[in-house]
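wait is this the right file?? whatever heres the structure
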């Protein structure tokens, strides 16, 4: 919400502006109000507004311990009832509010409200009564309206003094028939009745609003009000100001005779005079002035009454340079002017006064189409503006002096705080009071005598250096220079002292030559502050401040000086306390140092004896004081710890320990010192010279056995800590080496188990398909042999498809075996790099060609790029090991295809380049090579490589797959490691490919690396060393490499096969077929859901179950299985039938264990009516893996490979049991 400009509005200002007498009571005061003999407390409000304070009779009758109220003799107890109501609370709830909300007392209707259950606001409202026939308002405004009530009250007093009939006082304006104690309900009813009749009599509409009070008012012609003071014979009672206005000879002014004034001007004149706030009219080009009584009192000052009827520019000549252009611009544009807190220097009380007004300037047309004059409504804000400025100065002094750490600094900060207020500080002098010739100028004296006191000038504002009023040093007792006489008087009174030029206390000679700040006017008055702290009587300084020459030294100014004096005293006391505390701390530190020296001397004798005893000891021996100071130690101790003999302090001997050991020592030290018990422990020290070394001359960690015992005095107090340290570095090294070997062995075993699990899963998984396809071929041919018939075309096609499936599974197993053999050769250093003249571009082309069927099946595009560097170097034939390079390319292309297949955009870009030096990593953003296990050597140095130029060939494989996170990139290229634990479940593989590729690249004198971001694909790249070569003499380079033969596996593998994993194949609706009965459990009545992500296993298993006669549905992962379950009878009546679920474990999106746990949770929550039979079908066959499956909720486990007959027996046992 935007600011509405009310931030500076105070509650007191708001209540003061209210014309109703109002006071505020604290319902929970710190001190209880005095209680009268009758038990009723007095009204002691925390605030009374101006309306109540100015009404002395009402204020004295209600407020204070002596207040007697306005009761008459007939009802003396009504004031007590009023006080009880004003300070009481409602019994109906805990709101703490007043009850009832209103009360009639002293012919006034009082209303109350409560704020925050503590502050009670009471306001009085005058009750009107009709004392005569209604009068016409056109006859003039009543005195209360025209002058805010002041004129009417004065006229009433004059009438009573002259013996005339007295009008009822303002407190007696209620109906005579209304008793003093009448409740508000009765008054409301009478008021409603009276106003209703009057309204109908005057032709007003009937009351239809449902309110108990009429919405209309009675318009009258008050008897005393002056409707038009400009007419020849005005009616009503003319105030003194109106009489003055009528006495002006207007005929001699530009306005002309009053009888010739236009009706419009008369209306403006009456409006101006009736306004209770300051208002003035400026008429004609001469700006002839006409103003009301409030304007005369608050603006004109001594310029009144001669100001009435004259032009503005003459009497207000000091303002004309500023306001003249404002008048002219308003006359030119006709746009009203508004100013807030505007500075206007006015000479109205014998001095050019600094005043501030918020005023407006409105053009008046006087019934014509031209501007005839202006309406001015000024509101004086001098008090608020100047008080705010002075408070800022006091606050700034507090902020500045809070930074002082010593009394000497305090004086400078005081002057800094006064610097910005140029108007209220025309000049300033600050003298500190010291003892004699004290160089610090700030000694703190406890006495008040002025003997031997010297004043030292700490600084000045506006007073030039060397000025007569500012000598650098003054003798407070004997000197007569500067302000010393006034200083002595101020020291006597201990209060701020005002100096005047008119009485000679402020010599004008001292003021000559001062650079007056602010307005540049010389000061007529100055104030001397004897600065003394609140916690002492001694005057520590004198502050001389010039008084603002354009402001009177009134009550507001006195309040400012009092607040400034208190601020200086409070801040100075804080600085003195801080300085005392600093001094005490310094004394304590010196005493502690002295005590330390004494103790050191006493221990020297003991240290001499101990040194002779311990010099030849193989142990490091020490003596430590109860404070933790190393008092004595032998040479062996210093050698073992590296501790120096200098700079010993409490616990300094712990600085040479590592943090973990230091924490243990602190606990042991607590046991030694507090519990007086011995303590020992093994501690690790920081590096020392010379460091202990192992068998290979490598530095080992420094460890010692720390043993300490407390030495006690006869009275049981602790005298010292004695002990020794023994070097156990080699022992700890041996233990650490043993633990390291155990951890490495454990990690190796864990990796081997993980590798065995993955390899077993990858090898056993296709065995089920092999076994079932072999059974299918055997069964089909056995039937044909038994019936002595040739196989049909359908049988032959089924057998061929089964044979192709067996071939594909064997190829998958063979790739696993090849990776294992390659790892074995690498570990045994049996894998050699054999250079052969080859064309790198052809190697890359043949690598991509090997994947054509799979790329076509998965709709992946391949882009082949040759970098400019390759063409610039005209690379053709080079000596290289094409088989190893091809093996790396196959591993990288396999991964690229595997991770690109599920992407929306399927694109693989292969790039070849060359350079004369190892390629930089900056060619691909974010690309980094994996650190090598050893330095890269020149592998092309042997004679087998020839003597031609060395080249560095680099290959990049970029895919559009899922990419890698920084955490996943950290574990790539490690043995048995994949990007994440889910990688094997989602994409398969053993985790050996990248490790093998890294080792092969390093054997070939190169490196391998990667650049990848999650969700943005990856770039795998490597480089190898080569030499330029001549073409081979034979045609051997066109033959297939061994790895190509192993990869292809023969002609039977050249046919396109279906992808093994369901998440990369085109999914379709599951089929459900019905077969014949083949066992006691009718297969046709068994509905099976096969949950398997491997397409080959899924296809073979579904085919075998359908041949047996079962109704089979398929799901590719756990999520699809749960979705299928939602449509079965387990979840809704009339749903699809389901007998058993055959669940694989390793699947993408949701694995089998998670899925079955979710099914069992649905059963326990009552979302599934009956138990869902689930059998795990998995290649994870270790005992702990089978147990984990059963704990997750599997009813049984079938391990791969398996025969259908074995699986069927499991199903029969589960469903018939």
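ok assuming it is, sequence goes like this
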């Amino acid at each position: 919400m935007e600011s509405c400009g009310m931030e500076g509005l105070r509650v007191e200002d708001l209540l003061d502006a209210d014309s109703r007498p109002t006071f505020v009571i604290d319902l929970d005061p710190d001190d209880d109000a005095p209680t009268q003999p009758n038990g009723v407390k007095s009204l002691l409000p925390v605030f009374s507004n101006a309306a109540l304070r100015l009404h002395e009779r009402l204020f004295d009758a209600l407020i204070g311990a002596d207040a007697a109220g306005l009761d008459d003799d007939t009802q003396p107890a009504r004031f007590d009832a009023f006080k009880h109501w004003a300070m009481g609370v409602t019994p109906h709830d805990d709101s703490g509010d007043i009850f009832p909300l209103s009360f009639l007392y002293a012919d006034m209707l009082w209303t109350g409200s409560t704020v925050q259950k503590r502050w009670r606001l009471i306001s009085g409202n005058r009750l009107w009564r009709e004392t005569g026939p209604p009068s016409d308002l056109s006859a003039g405004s009543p005195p209360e309206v025209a002058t805010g009530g002041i004129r009417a009250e004065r006229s009433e007093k004059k009438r009573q003094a002259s013996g005339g009939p007295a009008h009822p006082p303002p407190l007696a304006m209620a109906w005579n028939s209304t008793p003093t104690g009448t409740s508000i309900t009765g008054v409301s009813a009478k008021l409603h009745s009276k106003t209703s009749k009057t309204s109908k009599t005057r032709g007003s509409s009937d009351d239809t609003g449902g309110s108990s009070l009429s919405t209309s008012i009675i318009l009258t012609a008050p008897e005393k009000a002056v409707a038009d003071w400009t007419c020849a014979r005005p009616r009503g009672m003319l105030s003194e100001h109106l009489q003055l206005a009528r006495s002006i000879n207007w005929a001699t002014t530009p306005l002309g005779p009053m009888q010739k004034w236009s009706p419009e001007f008369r209306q403006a004149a009456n409006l101006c005079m009736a306004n209770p706030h300051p208002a003035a009219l400026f008429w004609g080009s001469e700006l002839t002035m006409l103003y009301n009584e409030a304007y005369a009192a608050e603006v004109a000052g001594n310029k009144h009454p001669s100001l009435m009827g004259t032009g503005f520019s003459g009497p207000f000549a000091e303002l004309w340079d500023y306001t003249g252009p404002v008048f002219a611009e308003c006359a030119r544009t006709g746009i009203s002017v508004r100013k807030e807190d505007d500075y206007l220097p006015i000479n109205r009380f014998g001095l050019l006064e600094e005043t501030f007004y918020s005023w407006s300037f409105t053009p008046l047309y006087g019934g014509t189409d031209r501007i005839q004059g202006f309406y001015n409504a000024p509101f004086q804000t001098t008090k608020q503006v100047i008080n705010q400025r002075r408070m800022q100065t006091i606050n700034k002094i507090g902020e500045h002096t809070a930074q002082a750490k010593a009394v000497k600094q305090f004086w400078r900060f005081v002057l800094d705080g006064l610097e910005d207020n140029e108007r209220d500080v025309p000049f300033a002098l600050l003298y500190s009071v010291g003892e004699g010739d004290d160089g610090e100028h700030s000694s703190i004296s406890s006495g008040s005598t002025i003997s031997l006191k010297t004043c030292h000038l700490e600084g000045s504002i506006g007073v030039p250096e060397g000025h007569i009023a500012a000598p650098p040093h003054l003798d407070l007792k004997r000197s007569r220079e500067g302000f010393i006489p006034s200083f002595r008087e101020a020291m006597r009174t201990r209060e701020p002292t005002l100096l005047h030029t008119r009485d000679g206390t402020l010599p004008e000679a001292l003021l000559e030559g001062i650079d007056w700040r602010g307005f540049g006017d010389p000061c007529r008055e100055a104030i001397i502050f004897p600065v003394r702290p609140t916690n002492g009587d001694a005057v520590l300084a004198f502050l001389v401040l010039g008084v603002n020459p354009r402001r009177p030294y009134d009550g507001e100014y006195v309040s400012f000086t009092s607040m400034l004096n208190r601020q200086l005293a409070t801040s100075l006391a804080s600085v003195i306390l801080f300085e005392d505390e600093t001094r005490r701390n310094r004394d304590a530190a010196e005493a502690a140092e002295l005590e330390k020296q004494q103790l050191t001397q006493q221990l020297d004798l003991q240290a001499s004896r101990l040194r002779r005893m311990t010099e030849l000891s193989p142990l490091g021996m020490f003596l430590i004081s109860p404070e933790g100071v190393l008092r004595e130690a032998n040479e062996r101790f210093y050698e073992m710890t590296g501790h120096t003999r200098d700079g010993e302090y409490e616990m300094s001997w712990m600085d040479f320990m590592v943090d973990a050991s230091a924490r243990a020592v602190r606990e042991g030290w607590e046991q030694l010192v507090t519990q007086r018990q011995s303590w020992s422990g093994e501690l690790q020290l920081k590096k020392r010279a010379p460091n202990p070394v192992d068998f290979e001359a490598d530095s080992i960690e420094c460890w010692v056995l720390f043993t300490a015992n407390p030495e006690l005095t006869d009275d049981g107090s602790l005298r010292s800590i004695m002990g020794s340290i023994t070097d156990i570095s080699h022992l700890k090294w041996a233990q650490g080496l043993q633990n390291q070997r155990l951890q490495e062995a454990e990690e190796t075993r864990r990796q081997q188990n993980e590798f065995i699990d993955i390899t077993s899963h990858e090898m056993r998984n296709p065995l089920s398909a092999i076994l079932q396809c072999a059974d299918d071929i055997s069964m089909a041919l056995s039937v044909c042999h038994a019936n002595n018939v040739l196989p049909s075309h359908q049988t032959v096609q089924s057998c061929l498809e089964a044979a192709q499936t067996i071939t594909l599974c064997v190829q998958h197993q063979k790739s696993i075996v090849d990776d294992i053999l390659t790892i074995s050769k690498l570990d045994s250093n049996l894998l050699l790099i054999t250079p052969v003249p080859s064309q790198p571009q052809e190697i890359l082309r043949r690598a991509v060609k090997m994947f054509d069927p799979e790329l076509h099946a998965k709709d992946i595009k391949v882009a082949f790029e040759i970098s400019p560097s390759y063409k610039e170097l005209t690379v053709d034939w080079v000596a290289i090991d094409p088989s190893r390079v091809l093996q790396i390319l196959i591993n990288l292309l396999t991964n690229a295809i595997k991770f690109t297949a599920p992407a929306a955009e399927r694109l693989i870009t292969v790039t070849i380049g060359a350079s004369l030096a190892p390629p930089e990593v900056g060619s691909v953003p974010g690309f980094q090579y994996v650190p090598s296990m050893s330095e890269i050597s020149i592998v092309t140095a042997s004679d087998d490589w020839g003597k031609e130029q060395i080249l560095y060939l680099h290959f990049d494989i970029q895919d559009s797959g899922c990419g890698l996170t920084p955490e996943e990139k950290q574990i790539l290229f490690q043995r048995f490691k994949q990007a994440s634990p889910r990688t094997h479940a989602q994409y398969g593989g053993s985790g050996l490919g990248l490790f093998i590729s890294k080792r092969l690249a390093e054997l070939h004198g190169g490196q391998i690396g990667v650049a990848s971001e999650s969700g943005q694909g990856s770039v795998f790249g490597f480089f190898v060393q080569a030499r330029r070569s001549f073409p081979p003499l034979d045609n051997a380079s066109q033959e297939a490499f061994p790895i190509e033969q192993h990869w292809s596996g023969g002609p039977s593998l050249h046919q396109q096969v279906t992808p093994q994993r369901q998440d990369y194949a085109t999914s379709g609706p599951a089929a459900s077929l019905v077969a014949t009965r083949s066992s006691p459990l009718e297969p046709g009545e068994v509905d099976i859901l096969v949950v398997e992500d491997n397409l080959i296993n899924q296809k073979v298993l579904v085919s075998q179950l359908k041949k047996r006669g079962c109704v089979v549905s398929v799901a590719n992962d756990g999520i699809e299985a749960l979705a299928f379950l939602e449509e079965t009878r387990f979840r809704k009546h009339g749903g699809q039938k389901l007998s058993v679920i055959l669940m694989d474990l390793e699947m993408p999106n949701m694995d089998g264990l998670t899925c079955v746990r979710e099914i069992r949770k649905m059963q326990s929550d009552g979302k599934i009516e009956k138990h869902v039979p689930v059998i795990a079908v998995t290649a994870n066959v270790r005992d702990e893996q089978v147990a984990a499956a059963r704990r997750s909720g599997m009813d049984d486990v079938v391990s791969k490979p398996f025969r259908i007959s074995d699986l069927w027996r499991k199903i029969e046992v589960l469903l018939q049991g």
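Confidence is low (pLDDT under 50) at residues 134-152, 164-214, 979-988, 1046-1079. so i think its the right one actually
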